[in-house]
Amino acid sequence: MEIKRFGRIFQDAAIRDGEPVINKAHKIKVAPKTFETLYTTVKEVMTLLEDAGMREREVRGIFPHLNQKDISACRAFAAVNMPDSKEYSRNNRNPDIKILLDENIPHSLVIPLSHHMSSLSHIYYEGMTSYMDDFIYWRPYMHIKDHSAETPEERTRRRGIKHIIISNDSDLCDLAYAQWQQRVMTCATPEDIDFTDTNTVYSINKWDIEKIEKDEKFCQKMAASILNTAHNPKGPWYKIRSNGSVYPGVTLQEMCKAAERNIEIEQYKAAKETGFNAPELS
Question: 226 and 202 in contact (C-beta within 8 Å)?
């Protein structure tokens, strides 16, 4: 098995029987002048937190080589990838929506956001660190996994899932715009197009990212605003305001006007190239 990396966590078949471990080794004394290098598994940390009911500082007392960020990484990883974890059960309450945090959003925010939204994941925990934006945006439409054994009902349910990306990267907003623009340019009545099956990007600036963990009211309002707009988007991407509300970065009406303008420009260029008298552009 190749080494899989998930931010602070990794998996290697040669270490701890291939269980996910924290990327921070410590040495234990097994004999006089003999030490063994050991990695702490995510499951060990989560067992203490969930089954033994310990607090994070108590867990750090047992594993002094770990810090608060390591513990947060374990909780976030469990919320995404460990179905037998309580964090996972809390995070997967709504099967109709999937929310992906881009790698410019701290992975530790999976936990505070999961109090208000569900089905959260992170680029790290999807194994997509440093992947190109095109792949990240279009991934829900690609057959990454084998769906050949799906029933018609399962296929319909999967295709009906709403995919959301929260990012600080404007390139993802451009990809969302391009997906909508393609439909607008090829439809006679764009206002009748159903965009509910498209990905929606929510753009947040770096100052407001810090509020998610520190400001409960901001986090709560942001989550509510995203969930209220996700299934009936007014535009391909939204901007998250400093108060937690959201607004479309561009509306369908604005895109239709831009499409009409592009058609006028293309017709003007074509007329000029063929030698016909072309009306001057307004």
Answer: yes
Sign of CA dihedral 38, 42, 45, 48: negative
Residue-level pLDDT at 6: 86
Question: Nearest 5°: phi and psi at 105?
Answer: -105, 130
To 5 degrees, how large is the angle CA 174–CA 179–CA 182?
115
Enter the tokens of residue 193.
């197009």
CA-based torsion, 71, 76, 79, 81: positive or negative: negative
Distance CA 248, CA 230 (A): 11
**Which secondary-structure segment (H or E) carries 265?**
helix 252-274
pLDDT at 144 over 50: no
Q: What's the pLDDT score for residue 265?
A: 57
- In whole angstroms, give the CA distance from residue 238 to residue 1: 40
User: What is the helix (H) or strand (E) element at residue 201, kind and residue range?
Assistant: strand 200-203
130 pLDDT above the threshold of 90: no
Close Cβ partners of 247 (under 8 Å, ≥ 6 residues apart):
238, 239, 241
Please name which of 22, 38, 132 lies closest in space to residue 73, comparing C-alpha atoms: 22
Say which DSSP state 157 is in: H
User: What one-letter code names the amino acid at 247?
Assistant: Y
Which string of DSSP letters, residue by residue, matches 9-76? EEE-TTSGGG--EES--EEEEEETTEEEEE--BHHHHHIIIIIS---HHHHHHHSTT--HHHHHHHHH
User: What's the average model confidence in pLDDT over 88-116?
Assistant: 89
pTM for this entry: 0.81
More confident of the two residues 145 and 88: 88
- Specify the DSSP element, H or E, that contains 156: helix 152-159
DSSP letter assigned to residue 85: S
